[in-house]
């Protein structure tokens, strides 16, 4: 009996201390408008069910917040998030809060301190080094890889021409995997011809488990997670993916030590290895894994959504095709830098696609020092949720036709008065997407190869889910007809 009482007293003291330490957060929470908050339950009730249901709930909640002025809060378990949908506030958050929010810790077992999740002190030095390998001059060396893989994609898509609708995403994803692996590590994976490998299965297993933890409050504490079978499954699959990258790093390190003669093109790993060996093998693995994971599904999704939207909007597809015809005529050459620069119409279509289907729907940051947002003072250690998925369709920011596909929104004359944070598919500020230029060139090249060869048709998609990124539930269903 005395034991039970002692445990109760300890638990109460722990809770009291926990509340005391977090008083500034509770004070802030009390001042913020309450939207969809169920008192003690917070917003947890919205995070039950399938990924489709959760996405629907989150979208509805945030849309209500938008209508109520754009500032609010979310409680998931004991995690608190300040939410703002106002571009001025978002700019302040993304410029001042470079630390990722606590929820990214679920990625740490996998990506360690790789750029994507690195704590801000470490991140500053790493970003400086990594930015140099994403210089335009270096990326332009990879245009041949983009084009060659685009050609393989077209050969593979030929099998679908003239046939009933099919999901184009697996084709595009394989193509982007081949591009990202060859440019990052020099590895010719040939996923386009061998799409089902143990490595890819391991990767997708880890992603599903991490995604589950992000939204299920009961899976978040490590102690509880370790009691579930997911913990073992996650570890086995993470170990498998680490082994894969470790082997490539070890091979390249050996080549560098033996004084390999790097004539012509170098992959990103080789460039990093030759930077006075500033990174250990483990750090290299963490960075390369971060780049390949951050760069593959994002670009593959945007390409697939662009094909889908152009399939729905024949007039816009005709404009893009006319532009491609004016650049290439009947030649099937690989797109050069000049060709890619001329693809303005295609670029606008991609941008508009990223607005309507924002593949990174939510960005989480954390305050490190006190910051003032409007009339609210955010203390250090507060989670901030930026939700481009909802901002990009906000009628307050984009007008009454916010939900319609209109690439001309991105004509220079129509973009003049737009706040820089009204449109943030690649985030904003010093911790924005390091691969955005790489991504845009690769997407344009692959889309140009596809749209020169095929006419695309599609039907509207109505069901989506959020599994870290935004996916359509039925897949990206399209039909293809070969152009003559
Ligand atoms: C359409 C394609 C892409 C989209 C929409 C996209 C979007 C984003 C966004 C929104 C972030 C910030 C995430 C956050 O703060 O939580 C980000 C960060 C990042 N992205 Fe991308 N990305 C794309 C392509 C790429 C590519 C091709 C690469 C690499 C080859 C890449 C590598 C990274 C890395 C390493 C970070 C972390 C940067 C840092 O923390 O300093 N991304 N991306």
Brief account:
This protein has helices spanning 2-21, 23-31, 51-67, 87-96, 108-111, 120-133, 136-139, 143-157, 169-185, 198-215, 222-225, 229-257, 268-273, 281-312, 314-328, 337-342, 344-356, 388-391, 395-398, 412-415, 436-453; strands spanning 71-76, 79-84, 99-100, 166-167, 363-366, 371-373, 376-378, 383-386, 454-458, 464-467, 469-472, 477-482.
Mean pLDDT: 92
Number of strands: 12
Low-pLDDT residue intervals, each spanning 5 or more residues: none
* Alpha-carbon distance between the two ends: 85 Å
Q: How would you describe the shape?
A: globular
Going by helix content, strand content and strand pairing, the class is: alpha+beta
* Strand arrangement, major sheet: 1-2-8-5-3
**Percent in strands:** 5-15%
Cofactors, ions and other ligands in the entry: protoporphyrin IX containing FE
Total helical elements:
21
Query: Radius of gyration, rounded?
Result: 24 Å
Residue share in helix: 40-55%
- Biggest sheet descriptor: 5 strands, mixed
Summarize this structure as a short list of keywords or feature phrases.
484 residues, 21 helices, alpha+beta, 12 strands, globular, 5-stranded mixed sheet
How would you sum up this structure, described in words?
The relative contact order is 0.16. With 484 residues, the chain is an alpha+beta fold. Strand 10 (464-467) and strand 11 (469-472) form a beta hairpin. The chain contains 21 helices and twelve strands. It has a five-stranded mixed sheet. It is globular and about 85 Å long. It starts with a helix and ends with a strand. Residues 115-116, 127, 290-291, 294-295, 298-299, 302, 359-360, 363, 425-427, 431, 433-435, 438-439 line the site of protoporphyrin IX containing FE. The site of protoporphyrin IX containing FE (HEM) has 22 residues, from helix 14 and helix 21.
